[in-house]
Amino acid sequence: MSEELITPEMFEHLVDLAAIALDPSQSDYLRGELNKQLNAINELIAIPIDESIPLAAHGVPYAQADAAPLREDCWEACENPEEILVQVPVSEDGYIVVPDIPHSDLE
Amino acid sequence: MALIDQTATEITQKIKQGELSAVDVLDSALERIRAVDGRPGALDDGIKSLEDEKKVHAFISLTEVRARKQAEEIDRRLQSGIDPGPLAGVPVTIKDIFCVKDTLSTAGSRILANFTAPYTATSAARLEEAGAVLLGKVNLDEFTFGSSSESSAFQPSPRNPWNTAYVPGGSSGGSTASVAANEVPLSLGTDTGGSIRQPAAFCGVVGLKPTYGRVSRYGLIAFGSSLDCPGPIARNVEDAALMLHVIAGPDPKDSTAFERVVPDYQEALKKDISGMRIGLSPDYFNITFPDPKTGELARQEIQEDVKKAVYYAAEVLAGLGAEIVEDVPMPNTAHGIPTYFVISRVEAASNLHRFDGVKYGYRTQKEGRDLNEMYRLSRAEGFGLQPKLRILMGMYVSAAQYSEQYYQRALRVRSLIRGDFEAIFDTHGSYRLDALLTPTTPTTAFKMDAVYGDSLLMQYTDQLTVSANHAGIPGISIPAGLDASGLPIGIQFLAADFREDIILQASYAFEQATKDEAWRKVRPQVLQ
Amino acid sequence: MTEYEVVIGLETHIQLNTKTKIFCGCKADSWKAPPNSNICPVCSGLPGVLPVLNKAVVEKGAILAAAMHADIRLISYFDRKNYFYPDLPKGYQITQYDQALGSGGYFEIPMPEGYVRRVRIHKLHLEEDAGKTKNDQGRRLIDFNRCGVPLVEMVTEPDLRSADEAAQYLIRLRQLLRWLGVSEADMEKGHLRCDANVSIRVKGSKKLNTKTEIKNVNSIDAVRNAIASEIERQIKEVNAGRQVQAWTLDWDDETGKMWMMRSKETEADYRYFREPDLLPLQLDEAWVKDLIADLPELPLERRERFVREYGLPIYDADILTGDLPLSTYYESAVQGSPRDPKTVSNWIINDVLRILKDLGISADDLNLTPQYLAAIIKLIDENKINTATGKGLLMKVQETEKAPAQIVEAEGLGLVSDVAAIRAAIQAVIAENPGEVKSFRDGKETLLGWFLGQVMRKTGGKADPKLTRQILVELLRG
User: Fold this and answer.
1) CB interface of A with C, residues 49-78, below 8 Å
2) SS (H, E, C) B171-215
């Protein structure tokens, strides 16, 4: 069994980055699953790679002719911005309302 | 035979000839749905009754009123002599990962359970413009994360129409189930690691993953941005070709959609395949995965009757004049899953950042002290376990200190995987293949609840499909028989970029050559 | 007492003046719009949306990079910067991290003291702006109108050495941005935003010490004051034997106070990775070459040329090259005028500029065209009108849009050069003011000016001043 790469401390850090609140049992399950998956992912480390192999952000290569032209700088008004706003959980006078951000300290 | 048991091609032809009305076809579909689908997936409760266990549960939202308006409009146009389009009057279902205006577009998640899309995805809009009747949104794994559709927040999740004790596959399980149960002839699904092809194989239908960039992703709630492909699911190859032609093509709203002309797929279908070079690779007849106990890499052969089906297909194709080339090496196939774990997680974690309870979707009702609390609670309460897992893994492998080791590395391995395909399809190479023939999945459908919960084994069912997503090339799964327990077996064709015509051609040839075989006469359990 | 040297680097965010946002077709300028009215599915980060790059953003970004003498990358990439903030709808910002549009380059800043500070540019990249938030009774109100507005972020090397230099950098940058037509650069509207990185070191040292970052300084004065205040604070700290901490600070210009911001932001792990929804930005080499060749003469280049070609003092040249339209105006006027460039310069600096300011317009909007200005100067030169009349004509031409000669004719403003008429006017003044005449004849020759004024009044300001003076002297000395 490989070492546990994701320690509870590292896990907490990831949970923080992900902005998700977890209870202890969920944390345990997820941390266990992550470590299991890491074993699979660590296969990647064993593969001989050299710098000459390019990074492929997409599988299919895009030639110039294939690329869509850039957008012309012309105004296209959205037909129904109200339908976007109506999805907002808490709104007031057209603004989106959220609780305050923890405030900065004073010097 | 009910109206809805016909193919899309037949339906639209008859409608245009005035033999059928779109409303009649719609009613036939609704009747079938009432008979076999059972209750739609909902957030309320997952308590399954015995009744539930016999039904398909493909749907989340059945948009009957909207569909009826569309069908009536089609009939009106026909009356006035206007051609409503190549899919006139064909009922279709849309995987609920697409935004469709004025419908709930949930991604199978609590976090979007109340989200009504204010716009329609390009691929769905093209179906509507072609005269299709959008019947509703069908169920899926939450945010398409999974291979069984069980992880949806909307329960009961879809069941395999061939045997409802089994999963339909995923993540486009609702799509393939709705087509296999003859509720509709066509469905729009998505394939990121095999999510169209695998459930198509499990459900005995045709599922096609186009070349990346062949079909616009605008309106597809993103999972793996460099991997996601919308694609058609149909009961036969001709219908899949018809639907692909409608949805494919450039889109000014998607910068990654290729500026390439869409060929006439239906014409390509019927071409003679003699001389077509079709390869078989030993690397696709087993799966490689880490042993859960030792962590060491283990190899396991795929299910025997799946293997047999592939060889049988090769024989049939050879009989039609194709050249079968054996022992084609695809050495990087085994790296597909770990690479997928990394790339898709990084993209997914980032794509899911926007679900924060601020401007749409679920926001926690709990009184938090501040904004951070609101984020953390909304996301904790809104996301199921599978999204949480993906997000956390994504954070890990893209974190500054690990990015080089994992993410950058995975992007290079992706080049290697792509390289395997470039080598075999190279017209000046050693193999010069037109297509590669493989099994779609290592096994046929598994039982509900069997694998779910063990994310690792679930993922490895995608090993034979995921390489095509990394490489971007097109792939199709078609039915090729039934296994010993009567579950469908799927075989897969893969070809070079933008050669959907070749995989459709090969599929059609096999389909036609085997059309009278006994297994094709067997109907799914729910239709018996 | 240890002498310290100040080391400053600036990060500016420049709002480009394209018509639409960087990745969608909403307007780029929504200064007066009601909240959340200038939005669409793309810029409000709805599920399923995709970015599509605005061509004009690339063009303007490249022009700025060229003007900064930066290396323009023929292939540059977009990346995602991931973090949570309510004004960032997607939860990530699309920016350019490691392969940006421009790298290297420099910007030369002439200082009033007479030296030139050359500031090296580290990089120039394209990115999208976030929305706006404001506080309201313990809640935050968010407006997405500004989400997706195109920005160029320019980062300098730490080459500035004083608060004044930093202020001059912004002044010259603002001038250049408007000159190139890539940004309105109105700091009050947030078109030009600035963060300053400040550190100190013992004079002569080459080492870079810990710096603090001052965020959100949004006026030239605020930059100067904030940096000056921070320098003072750092020197105090170091002299007291303490270490400068890598704080992020917020400057309140009204109270003149510095606040410390949460340092959490500086610890953020943004997990940058290539934006998969956009293709690499590929520029055609020939296109870039043409772009560089088509750059207008830049402000400081033109200023040098005005000094050289027109023999102007640097003070004049600096004002005349304040903005592109004014400098073009000046050159056109010089070309149409018989008088020396300095005269034309005086007219513009002393008079035309005031008109521009009062009317709130730019030189290319004037009805008082450079040709008309030149004509006025010519009329005075030919003695057809006097200077006072000439000055009055400026506004008359601006208001009526008529040619100066036309107005002179219509209103009878021509110089009175009729000797007899002048004689008569002078004689009348002499007769009406015997006391002053006696004072003059008794030796108070300074009264000549007064007499001149009186004659001017009598002739409605139209008497030829030279001739009048001549005859006055003759008659007064009698």
Assistant:
1) 55, 57-58, 62, 64, 67-78
2) CCHHHHHHHHCCCCCEEEEEECCCCCHHHHHHHCCEEEECCCCCE
Domain range for residue C464?
419-477
| pLDDT tens for each residue of C126-150 | 999 999 999 888 899 999 999 999 9
Q: Extract the runs of DSSP E, i.e. beta strands, from chain A.
A: 91-92, 95-99
Active-site annotation holds for B123: no
Query: Which pLDDT belongs to residue B454?
Result: 61
- C-beta atoms surrounding C354 within 10 Å: 11
Domain B3-272+517-527 fold: Amidase signature (AS) enzymes (3.90.1300)
Cα gap B228→B382, rounded to integer Å: 23
Q: Are residues C401 and C269 in the same domain?
A: no
Q: Tell me, what CATH number does C425's domain have?
A: 1.10.10.410
SS3 C249: strand
Predicted model pTM: 0.92
Q: Which residues, other chains included, contact A38 with Cβ-Cβ below 8 Å and sequence gap of 6+?
A: A2, A5, A6, B396
Q: Are residues C118 and C178 in the same domain?
A: yes
Q: Which residues of C touch A57 (CB under 8 A)?
A: 274, 276
Nearest CA in chain A to B357: A89
Q: How many domains does chain C have?
A: 3
The answer to whether the CB of B28 falls within 8 A of the CB of B11 is no
CA dist B99 and B102 (Å) reads 9
Residue ending a domain, among C411, C427, C448, is C411
CA atoms within 13 A on the CB side of A73: 18
| CA–CA distance, C83 with B430 (Å, rounded to integer) | 48
If pLDDT is split at 50, 70 and 90, which confidence band does A105 have?
Answer: very low
How many other CB atoms are there within 10 angstroms of residue C286's CB atom? 8
Asked if C35 and A101 come within 8 Å (Cβ–Cβ), the reply is no
pLDDT in tens, B253-265: 999 999 999 999 9
User: In this predicted structure, what is the pLDDT of residue B44?
Assistant: 76
Same domain, C324 and C178: no
Of the residues B152, B195, B344, B455, only one is catalytic, namely B195
Residues C312 and C281 grouped into a single domain: no
The angle that helices B64-79 and B8-16 make with each other, rounded to 10 degrees, is: 50
The residue that leads in pLDDT, B24 or C416, is B24
Domain co-membership, C65 together with C132: yes
Type of residue numbered B511: E
pLDDT at B299: 84
Of B28, B55, B61, B95, the active-site residue reads: B95
pLDDT value, residue A1:
40
| pLDDT at residue number C475 | 83
Give the end of a domain, one of C411, C435, C462.
Answer: C411
Residues C263-298: pLDDT tens digits?
555 567 899 999 999 999 999 999 999 999 999 999
Q: Is B264 strand, coil or helix?
A: coil
Comparing CA positions, the residue from C86, A96, A90 lying closest to residue B371 is C86
The 10 Å CB-count burial string (b at 16+, else e) for B244-277 is bbbbbbbbebbbbbbbbebeebbebbeeebeebb
User: In chain A, what is the straight-line distance between the N-terminal and C-terminal CA atoms, in Å?
Assistant: 51
pLDDT classification of A106: cutoffs 50, 70, 90? very low
Domain with CATH 3.90.1300.10 in chain B: 3-272+517-527
